[in-house]
């Protein structure tokens, strides 16, 4: 596949469901990918990237940011509070706000640092014990708690269970966002980003369909 084809498919699906193609931001998920592949995608003009580990991102993105202007980095993996400061210095957007302790840490650090990344709350729509995210029933309270700390919640994020129909999860995420007055919806990956766009995704996180399979060996 590759970047051009994914952009095409995003635009086609957006138009099909009566949305402006620009209303969907493509996050190219570069985790684990070799630097040559990431560089090739930067050369093609892509500037919005996602990483799921703070350490890995810190190892590769400062150098790319020096060479390519306008890079926007999104953290899409779980964040430990002891890595929050580093994450806030490196990332423009954090998609994985999911517990009060992390919210309090980010609120405190944003005063100290004088800036705060854009924030999404991760919702564990499938209520899977091994997955991060607030439970759907606790989402409203958590969002309120974040707001009470002075944090602006731009969107919600979910990762549906692998073996379930994703559209039900996307619909649930959208419902939670609507009743909390939240516009951003980070949902959809290589296998289901078109379904997510039809359900209102504002951010799709696409890795392997752009870069090729990840090699963990
Ligand atoms: C890895 C990852 C993706 C991208 O997955 P692909 O199937 O390769 O598109 C999206 N979102 C999150 C949270 C991820 O960890």
From TrEMBL:
Modified residues annotated as N6-(pyridoxal phosphate)lysine in this record: 31
Pfam families according to UniProt: Ala_racemase_N
The keyword Methyltransferase is assigned to this record: no
Co-factor requirement: pyridoxal 5'-phosphate
Domain Alanine racemase N-terminal residues, every copy: 6-214
Taxonomy, superkingdom: Bacteria
InterPro entries reported for this sequence: Ala_racemase_N, PLP-binding_barrel, PyrdxlP_homeostasis
Any one GO molecular function term: pyridoxal phosphate binding
Gene3D superfamilies recorded: Alanine racemase
Acetylation as UniProt keyword: no
Keywords: Pyridoxal phosphate
Recorded family membership: Belongs to the pyridoxal phosphate-binding protein YggS/PROSC family.
Role: Pyridoxal 5'-phosphate (PLP)-binding protein, which is involved in PLP homeostasis.
Protein name listed in UniProt: Pyridoxal phosphate homeostasis protein
């Amino acid at each position: 596949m590759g970047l051009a084809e994914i952009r095409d498919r995003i635009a086609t699906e957006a138009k099909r469901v009566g949305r402006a193609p620009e209303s969907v931001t493509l996050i190219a998920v570069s985790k684990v990918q070799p630097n040559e592949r990431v560089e090739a995608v930067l050369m093609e003009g892509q500037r919005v990237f996602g990483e799921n580990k703070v350490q890995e991102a810190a190892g590769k993105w400062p150098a790319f940011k020096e060479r390519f202007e306008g890079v926007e980095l999104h953290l899409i993996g779980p964040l430990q509070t002891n890595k929050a400061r580093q994450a806030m210095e490196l990332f423009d957007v954090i998609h994985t706000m999911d517990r009060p302790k992390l919210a309090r840490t980010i609120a405190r650090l944003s005063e100290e640092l004088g800036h705060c990344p854009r924030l999404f709350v991760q919702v564990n729509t499938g209520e899977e014990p091994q997955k991060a995210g607030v439970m759907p029933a606790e989402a409203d309270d958590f969002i309120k708690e974040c707001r009470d700390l002075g944090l602006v919640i731009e969107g919600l994020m979910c990762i549906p269970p692998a073996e379930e129909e994703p559209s039900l999860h996307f619909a649930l995420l959208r419902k939670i966002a609507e009743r909390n007055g939240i516009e951003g919806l980070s949902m959809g990956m290589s296998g289901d980003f078109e379904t997510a766009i039809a359900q209102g995704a504002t951010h799709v996180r696409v890795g392997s369909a752009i870069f090729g399979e990840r090699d963990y060996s």
